[in-house]
Write a structure and sequence with these properties.
- By secondary structure, the protein is mostly helical.
- It has one domain.
- It starts with a helix and ends with a helix.
Length: 54
């Protein structure tokens, strides 16, 4: 389970970097794909809000 948290932590960091480089629409589409899956959504929402605040 720790591995899954690390993967999503890296993905959230990637989103922050992508947001600076790409249009917001691309980030929104990626985040929607991330949040559609129930398991991914649960893990993402369990991440500290300071990390996932974008």
């Amino acid at each position: 389970m720790l591995w899954i948290h690390m993967v999503f932590y890296k993905q959230s960091k990637c989103l922050i970097i992508c947001r600076r480089k790409f249009q917001k629409l691309v980030c929104y589409i990626f985040s929607l794909k991330l949040l559609i899956n129930k398991d991914k959504r649960t893990v993402f929402l369990s991440i500290n809000s300071k990390i996932r605040a974008w």
